[in-house]
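Hey there, shall we discuss this one?
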Amino acid sequence: MSLPAAPYGRMLTAMATAFAADGSVDLAGTAAIADHLLRHGHDGVVVSGTTGESPTTTVPEDGEILRAVKDAVGERGTVVAGIGTNSTAHSVELALQAEKVGVDAVLLVAPYYNKPGPAGILHHFTEVARATDLPVMLYDVPGRTGQAIPASVYEQARLLDTVTSVKHATGDPTATIALRELGYDVYSGDDGLLLGYLAHGACGLVSVVGHAAGEQLREVIARFDADEPQAALAAFTALVPAMTAMMGVANYGATTAKAALQLLGVLDNRNVRGPLVALDEVEVAALRESLEKAQLL
């Protein structure tokens, strides 16, 4: 069965942001990450999401990061800018900045921590979407926001011309069916549930494991799209050790992504900003072993 059209490409990764030893943004290192991803199976990148440590970067830094990535990617792929915060005014400011840089779309997570009701979530989405002409990809990740986007909000948000896609990370691939019926393009936001999302109508993946396995994840998607489910499953199964190592441990996300990039030689460090703490040597050794088992090193 053929997968539905993917507006930003099938294989994207929510990329890490590189930092120098003093904690400042390393723009050259960040550009190197983007280049690495585009050279290894990616159709595009998502910048300044959670894996990009966006809660710890300033608006000026976000602009510099976005410009560096956009320059590095050029015409080779798409760039989606993470603009989601728990302040509507702040998200509007980031959206306007992203529009000036010239990205392909923005990623807008449901407001976290302050936990607005459905009316507040819809208000947030509406105000940000109407601030620019950029396409909006909603991001549903209740494990980080404290609540899932309600069905009623999905229904009403889809009436906004630019709200057209969803990065879905609720742990429920079956929800893709209802979202597709509303007209959304759905991207799996969970590496481990990729096949489930594709089977229910998703068009692609926004990954974290893609930092180390872009070409391999692209192959999984391609085999599924070619109606070769057993080959897709075999390719996916080979990646399970890497997925477990990068996403199934307590200290995961930007920390494991950067350690993987260091092991691959893309970065010469694994610096993160607090409150994250870089992987220690024992954790790096375990990650190395898992990536080797998945034949990624």
Strands lie at 11-14, 44-47, 78-82, 105-109, 136-140, 163-168, 185-188, 204-207. Residues 11-229 form a domain with the TIM Barrel fold (CATH 3.20.20.70). The longest strand covers residues 163-168. Residues 250 and 256 are 10 Å apart (CA to CA).
